[in-house]
């Protein structure tokens, strides 16, 4: 079963009492983009969907999270991490090559801390549109290589290298290596 991004966006928009035009205006996107996404005629990038959800406001985790009771868990098995991107990739029909996955530990908003296990296949990229959000984030590269751009600074990080920055500075992540890159990151307050 695939995640229906269009139906979910329409449901959330209507529950918020917003027209497509009102949401588009709040999010700084075109009305046509909202309409196409809701009809599943356009598969949004992670950056575009995040921008649209900011107009509601809602995080990516809330958008993709199934309705289930909040549990105050302390320990998590790998299959209990919340997958924030694989459903989006399935819905958009992207190919596995260049795939990016972000898996969240527990309820980020209950703790005001988002911890992610990130995996970037060769060529994976957060997109040409730089990410910007009101948080601070940091991470450690566990394997592979990751090009991190923060403002005008660009560096290729390898296993053991780390980053920490103010997320209000435009930033981007890209696997420029020939093997999968794995990162563990944290962000506060949560942004997905």
From TrEMBL:
Sequence ranges assigned to domain HTH cro/C1-type in this UniProt record: 9-63
SMART domains in alphabetical order: HTH_XRE
GO cellular component, one term: cytosol
UniProtKB keywords: DNA-binding
Pfam families, A to Z: Cupin_2 (PF07883), HTH_3 (PF01381)
DNA-binding is among the record's keywords: yes
PROSITE patterns: HTH_CROC1
SUPFAM superfamilies according to UniProt: lambda repressor-like DNA-binding domains, RmlC-like cupins
An MF annotation (GO) of this entry: DNA binding
Superkingdom of the source species: Bacteria
Protein name as annotated: Transcriptional regulator with XRE-family HTH domain
Native source species: Chelatococcus composti
Lineage: Bacteria, Pseudomonadati, Pseudomonadota, Alphaproteobacteria, Hyphomicrobiales
């Amino acid at each position: 079963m695939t995640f229906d991004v269009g139906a979910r966006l329409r449901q959330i928009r209507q529950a918020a009492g917003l027209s497509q035009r009102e949401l588009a205006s709040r999010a700084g996107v075109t009305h046509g983009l909202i309409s196409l996404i809701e009809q599943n005629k356009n598969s949004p990038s992670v950056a575009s969907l995040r921008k649209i959800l900011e107009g509601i406001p809602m995080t990516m985790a809330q958008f993709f999270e199934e309705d289930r009771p909040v549990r105050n868990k302390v320990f998590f098995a790998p299959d209990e991490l919340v997958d924030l991107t694989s459903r989006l990739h399935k819905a958009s029909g992207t190919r596995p090559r260049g795939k990016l996955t972000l898996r969240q530990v527990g309820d980020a908003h209950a703790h005001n801390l988002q911890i992610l296990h990130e995996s970037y296949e060769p060529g994976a990229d957060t997109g040409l549109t730089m990410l910007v959000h009101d948080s601070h984030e940091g991470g450690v590269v566990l394997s592979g290589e990751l090009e991190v751009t923060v403002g005008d600074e660009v560096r290729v990080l390898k296993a053991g290298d780390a980053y920490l920055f103010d997320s209000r500075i435009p930033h981007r992540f890209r696997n420029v290596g020939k093997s999968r890159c794995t990162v563990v990151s944290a962000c506060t307050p949560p942004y997905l």
